[in-house]
Every structure is written in structure tokens, then in C-alpha cells.
Write a structure and sequence with these properties.
Structural class: little secondary structure
Shape: elongated
Bound molecules: zinc ion
Largest sheet: 2 strands, antiparallel
């Protein structure tokens, strides 16, 4: 460990909105699979949602 501060959290770029987002506790186990900053972006990844029947 070399002085990891609380703010030294990993970041990723959202594939949908292109914004950087920071590691969250809820992503602790799935961080490698996280590609979107929010549920909203995750849903809009497929810009032709044919599966959504609402
Ligand atoms: Zn996003």
C-alpha cells in the first residue's frame, strides 16, 4: 500500500455519455463489468430498444 487516499478511487468513462464516473460501493463486486455511469445510460446503450415493451 502506498498511501491510498479515500479520493483515490478508480474511474471509468461511460460508453454512452462519455463522462468519467467514479467507483461506487455498489459496484464493488462488478467493477470490471461496469461500463456505464448510471442505470439510465446502461439502458440507453442500445439506441433502438426493441426489447423494451412498456
Ligand atoms: Zn453515462
Amino acid at each position: 500500500m502506498r498511501g491510498v487516499s479515500k479520493q483515490d478511487l478508480p474511474e471509468k468513462i461511460c460508453l454512452v455519455c462519455g463522462r468519467p464516473f467514479t467507483w461506487r460501493k455498489k459496484w464493488k463486486k462488478v467493477w470490471d463489468e461496469v461500463k456505464y455511469c448510471s442505470e439510465r445510460c446502461r439502458r440507453s446503450k442500445a439506441s433502438g430498444g426493441t426489447k423494451s415493451s412498456s
